[in-house]
Amino acid sequence: MPKCILLLEDGSVFEGKSFGKIGTTLGEICFNTGMTGYQEIFSDPSYFGQIVILTNSHLGNYGSNSEDIESDNIQVSGVICRNFSQNHSRNNATTLQKYLENTVGIQDIDTRALVNHIRFWCSKLHHLFRNIRNF
To answer: Looking at the DSSP assignment, which residues form a beta bridge with residue 106?
Structure first.
């Protein structure tokens, strides 16, 4: 997977690996501490245009399916996680990579450190999230 960076408005840089769409996105950063329900989060209109940090240590391990959506489209503008799984365990599911093929994502991020940074320094500011092929 290509390397990518998360660049915060305060100049902080977090390096990771990309998943989903290769590209650049901009949005308000927020976090969710839920252990399940990531597909519902991505399709929930209340997250429209936000870049979501998922603090659960694994993302994608049960895949995605059409029964677990809150709206017809993905609403988030980006996804940040620690570990992104390319494989899924449910028979009636597809990979989360396929579901997020048009959404910019970054993995291998210390999400606890990032959330602490966001809460302390810049909880309501907008951030640039950037996926770069030749980083």
So the answer is: 18, 80
The count of other CB atoms within 10 Å of the CB of residue 6 is: 22
Question: Hey, what CATH class is 3-131 in?
Answer: alpha beta
Q: What is the residue extent of each domain of the chain?
A: 3-131
In this predicted model, what pLDDT tens digit does every residue of 63-98 receive, in sequence order? 788 787 788 899 999 999 999 988 878 788 788 889
SS (H, E, C) 46-112: HHCCEEEEECCCEECCCCECHHHCCCCCCCCCEEECCEECCCCCCCCCECHHHHCCCCEEEECCCHH
Contact 39, 64 (CB under 8 A): yes
pLDDT tens readout for residues 107-122? 999 999 999 998 887 6
Rounded Cα distance, 55 and 14, in Å: 15
DSSP class of residue 57?
S
- Cα gap 81→6, rounded to integer Å: 11
Characterize the bridge pairing of strands 13-20 and 3-7.
antiparallel
